[in-house]
Design brief:
Elements: H1 5-29, H2 37-50, H3 57-61, H4 71-80, H5 83-88, H6 90-118, H7 126-137, H8 140-145, H9 152-172, H10 175-188, H11 198-209, H12 214-226, H13 228-241, H14 246-249, H15 254-260, H16 262-265, H17 275-290, H18 292-312, H19 318-323, H20 328-339, H21 361-368, H22 374-391, H23 400-410, H24 413-427, E1 434-437, H25 442-445, E2 453-456, E3 470-474, H26 478-483, E4 491-497, E5 503-508, E6 516-517
Parallel strand pairs: 1-2, 1-3, 4-6
Antiparallel strand pairs: 3-5, 4-5
Helix pairs in contact: 1-6, 1-7, 2-4, 4-6, 6-7, 6-9, 7-21, 7-22, 9-10, 10-12, 11-12, 17-18, 17-20, 18-21, 18-22
Length: about 525
């Protein structure tokens, strides 16, 4: 039975939606959909925009802050204002689910276009599209991540949309298709920094694939429009922090956090300056997210694609030339490791740190699978899907992308201490306003609202206790360091948990209170 492209799109979209919803229900009921510390921070950033006590639009806007790019936070705004969706994390999960479903459809498009170029059809190869969509849809790590408020599913969607739109431009060579592709690329740069690597790649692809006098003009138009997102982000950082590179060098940048925590994270910086070590770490992270066999298949597919391109030429394989752009985000991760801007530790037996960055290999694997012919395509799909099932042999909780937040954010001594604090604050709502260190997950889990909270970010801002009725301090954070410089007068400790870390709640002295300890 022949299936039309429209029917295939419907089947792919519906299947992805069903898988996504079932996975979200499962991980949410297991209490696993909102355990990443970064995911909670994404939710809190969006919530601060709608929950600010200020009526100034600018004061609300600056809550987007830095260094995380803003698109995911903006997409959560229509949902995060609702308390249940915010505190449960579903406001972010819904965005990730939608991105996941759209990503599967986009990879169907990429696979079908690329497969048609390999075969006799001039338009589509449904089998190649199904293979690309299936390998993305059933990846266990992505199935989990699309239930979380993390930014990886949205980035995969944006990268796929950028490449897919360039493939449509290759087909049509119209100015409208070019402008559409450039606009999509600009939006994608506001998801994750890996998407920035697509800009020079897209510019070069247009220069090489366009013909005639329009070559340079079209490439410059595409570059100018696609760079708008990047330029906006530079302005955003300058307008708020007077430093356009605040996202790269600022206090809360990955580089700044690593510098402050080098005594704990120094071991993870061993790949810095070494291309081979950086590549090895990135491949190990990819194996943790996709399976070792999947990595081998992806690399072999890449080698085959490059060989085809060199032997037959760019102009005879324009769709393949564009599809190869999906290798750039993985290359960007390798560069980030080599330059010391990111750290990854992917060995589950020792430690897990940022292992989810390896999910970028899916772009390469699913984007290029269409180069295989029918029997080869079937074999490749069976090998990769078999690897996926092997990854889940001990259950979903044993996946590296699930184990990472469990080990780093749930099973730690600090996490247990914070859970006691959050339980206490839910049972004994603190008097407003509450002074607490900025970014604290306690705000989300303890029933607090940002309009009733006074955030403390770093010691440089100074300590202002005016209007503060309650102070929540965690050993080691910026507020704890500031309070350790002087005695806290006019407050009494009403709750303490610890030690290591010690967490305390203080209230104004004129309230009759008793100290509770755990």
């Amino acid at each position: 039975m022949n299936i039309t492209t429209f029917q295939a799109r419907f089947i792919v979209t519906l299947s992805a939606l069903v898988f996504g919803v079932i996975a979200l229900f499962y991980f949410y009921t297991e209490g696993l959909s909102n355990i990443y510390g970064d995911g909670i921070s994404h939710l809190n950033i969006a919530r601060k925009v709608v929950d600010s006590s200020s009526t100034s639009l600018w004061e609300r806007y600056v809550q987007l802050g830095s260094p995380w790019l803003p698109l995911q936070h903006l997409l959560m705004l229509p949902l995060v204002w609702q308390d249940f969706l915010w505190r449960s994390g579903l406001a972010g999960s819904i965005v990730s689910l939608a991105a996941y479903v759209l990503s599967v459809l986009l990879f169907f498009e990429i696979g079908s276009l690329l497969g048609a170029e390999e075969g006799t059809s001039k338009q589509r190869s449904v089998s190649s599209g199904f293979a690309a969509a299936t390998l993305l849809c059933l990846n266990p790590s992505l199935i989990y991540l699309q239930t979380t408020p993390m930014s990886e599913p949205l980035f995969i969607c944006a990268a796929a949309a950028t490449v897919c739109s360039l493939m449509y431009w290759v087909e049509r060579r119209t100015r409208r298709a070019l402008l559409t592709s450039a606009a999509i690329a600009a939006i994608s740069t506001l998801t994750r920094y890996e998407a920035w690597s697509l800009l020079p790649g897209g510019f070069l692809a247009i220069v090489l694939l366009q013909q005639g006098k329009r070559r340079i003009v079209d490439a410059l138009i595409w570059a100018a429009i696609s760079s708008l997102g990047l330029l906006y982000w530079l302005w955003h950082n300058f307008a708020i922090y007077s430093n356009p590179l605040e996202f790269l060098t600022g206090y809360y940048s990955a580089r700044g956090i690593f510098a402050r925590q080098s005594e704990f994270l120094g071991w993870s910086d061993f790949a810095s300056g070494s291309l081979l070590l950086s590549l090895g770490i990135a491949l190990l992270a990819s194996a943790a997210c996709c399976g070792t066999l999947s990595v081998i298949v992806a690399l072999f597919t890449l080698c085959r694609a490059v060989a085809k391109l060199f032997s037959e030429g760019l102009n005879r394989r324009p769709r393949l030339s564009v599809a190869l752009l999906l290798t750039l985000p993985f290359s960007f991760t390798v560069y980030g490791l080599m330059s010391g801007n990111i750290q990854i530790y992917p060995l589950s037996a020792i430690a897990l740190l940022n292992v989810r960055y390896g999910i970028g290999l899916l772009l390469l694997l699913c984007g290029l699978v269409g180069i295989w012919h029918s029997r080869q395509l079937f074999l490749v799909s069976v090998l990769v899907l078999g690897q996926y099932f092997w990854m889940c042999r001990y259950g979903y909780k044993e996946l590296a992308v699930v184990q990472e937040p469990l080990r780093n954010s749930v099973y730690t001594r600090e996490a247990r201490a914070r859970s006691y604090l959050e339980e206490y604050l839910r049972r004994h709502p603190p008097k407003k306003k509450v002074l607490i260190c900025g970014g604290d997950r306690t705000i989300l889990h303890a029933g607090l609202h940002y309009r009733d909270v006074k955030l403390f970010y770093d010691t440089a801002q100074g300590l202002d206790l005016e209007g503060v009725e309650t102070i929540v301090v965690v050993e080691g954070d910026a507020l704890w360091r500031e309070l350790s410089k002087r005695p806290l007068e006019g407050f009494i400790c009403i709750y303490r948990v610890g030690p290591r870390p010690e967490i305390a709640v203080w209230e104004r002295l004129y309230r009759l209170s008793t100290v509770s300890e755990r």
